[in-house]
Write a structure and sequence with these properties.
Blueprint: H1 10-21, E1 27-32, H2 37-47, E2 52-59, H3 63-71, E3 78-83, H4 88-92, E4 97-100, H5 116-133, E5 138-141, H6 146-160, E6 168-170, H7 173-187, E7 198-200, E8 207-209, H8 222-233, H9 235-243, H10 251-269, E9 274-281, E10 289-297, E11 300-304, H11 312-337
Parallel strand pairs: 1-2, 1-4, 2-3, 4-5, 5-6
Antiparallel strand pairs: 7-8, 9-10, 10-11
The protein binds nicotinamide-adenine-dinucleotide and (2S)-2-hydroxybutanedioic acid.
Catalytic activity: (S)-malate + NAD(+) = oxaloacetate + NADH + H(+)
Family: Belongs to the LDH/MDH superfamily. MDH type 1 family.
InterPro entries: L-lactate/malate_DH, Lactate/malate_DH_C, Lactate/malate_DH_N, Lactate_DH/Glyco_Ohase_4_C, Malate_DH_type1, NAD(P)-bd_dom_sf
Length: 338
């Protein structure tokens, strides 16, 4: 086994902890599903993040190889690998942030809800581990269907008595990344200059880009609005079809997840004004969970922002999104309660 697999990295860990105590921020981050399509690239990107001092890679397969590989990168974070359910608790103990891309991806013709059967159980087991071993960690949930897996995680934490709504965030960052890219293409500008709020949830019509609130302020024709909304809502399916049975978005997702995790860590560190979209416990609509902009701080999603003014097109989209979201949320809640 590679030298820093499991227990072999104690010296390096002590050094990392000293660095953290010496003033340099150092957070402990676990990736669950680290050997998968998203997990591998995300492990690479989190190993490059200077805010991470310890990186735990957990999966039910292949973590020794991924861990050995990533651990050779000459960046600060100490990497440790954990393989299979018996090592889940060790992987989670002491973590500040847990990122979950574990679970099966879509194939052409499937909806995200078709993944519920398998992924609901995976998310339940992993969240039971979090409730037991790192109940104060921030959780970034990527596994689909996010509109149902976030309620599942919340119910597991409620059952365990550890639920803190500020600490559970469904990752919708890829919708924002796509929206910025597609809007920038239409406007003919650099995507890094564009900020598109995307609200609602993370599946089909529940993905609601607010083009009326794009920064810098921009106007779109009815055709552009229709084209952009459809493209953003179907960005995931575009990748699933292009991959033709080999899975769904992994590289752009790892990029989006790493960007979002970095925002969570900057919030934890106390940086002011960190704002991202995420699917969270919410009172913005009548639904118990909803994606909007949130302000990230030491406690997680410390502030959940209102939707702001919507135009007629967005108001109609919002009603459609809420109808679908209600069913997906209910399905997740019932999976744990029944
Ligand atoms: P993948 O099949 O390549 O990788 C999934 C990994 O999860 C595998 O390595 C597998 O061994 C692991 N796994 C399975 N059961 C596990 C368990 N019980 N504990 C720990 N690990 C386990 O899939 P992928 O392409 O990386 O996608 C993963 C998930 O992310 C899918 O559900 C996909 O739909 C979702 N996803 C979400 C978004 C989003 O925007 N939120 C974007 C893309 C993909
Ligand atoms: C995405 O948006 O790319 C993910 O949710 C994966 C999928 O199934 O589309």
């Amino acid at each position: 086994q590679p030298p820093n697999f499991q227990e072999g990295s104690d010296v390096l860990l002590k050094r990392a902890e000293c660095r953290a105590k010496g003033g340099a921020p150092g957070f402990k981050v676990a990736i669950l599903g680290a050997a998968g399509g998203i997990g591998q690239s995300l492990s690479l990107l989190m190993k490059m993040n200077p805010l991470v001092s310890v990186l735990h890679l957990y999966d039910v397969v292949n973590t020794p190889g991924v861990t050995a590989d990533v651990s050779h990168m000459d960046t600060g974070a100490v990497v440790r690998g954990f393989l299979g359910q018996p090592q889940l608790e060790s992987a989670l103990t002491g973590m500040d942030l847990v990122i979950i891309p574990a679970g099966v991806p879509r194939k052409p013709g499937m909806t995200r809800d078709d993944l519920f059967k398998i992924n609901a159980g995976i998310v339940r087991t992993l969240c039971e581990g979090i409730a037991k071993c790192c109940p104060n960690a921030i959780v970034n949930l990527i596994s689909n269907p996010v509109n149902s897996t976030v309620p599942i995680a919340a119910e597991v934490f409620k059952k365990a008595g550890t639920y803190d709504p500020k600490r559970l965030l469904g990752v919708t960052a890829l919708d924002v990344v796509r929206a910025n890219t597609f809007v920038a293409e239409v406007l003919g500008v650099d995507p890094r200059e564009v900020d598109v709020p995307v609200v609602g949830g993370h599946a089909g019509v529940t993905i609601l880009p607010l083009l009326s609130q794009v920064k810098p302020p921009s106007s779109f024709t009815a055709e552009e609005t229709e084209y952009l909304t459809n493209r953003i809502q179907n960005g995931g399916t575009e990748v699933v079809e292009a991959k033709a049975g080999a899975g769904s978005a992994t590289l752009s997702m790892a990029y989006a997840a790493a960007k979002f995790a970095d925002a969570c860590l900057r919030g934890l560190k106390g940086e002011a004004g960190v704002v991202e979209c995420a699917f969270v416990d919410s009172q913005v609509t009548e639904l118990p969970y909803f994606a909007t902009k949130v302000r990230l701080g030491r406690a997680g999603a410390e502030e959940v922002y209102q939707l702001g003014p919507l135009n007629e097109y967005e108001r109609i989209g919002l009603e459609k999104a809420k109808r679908e979201l209600a069913g997906s949320i209910q399905k997740g809640v019932e999976f744990i309660r029944k």
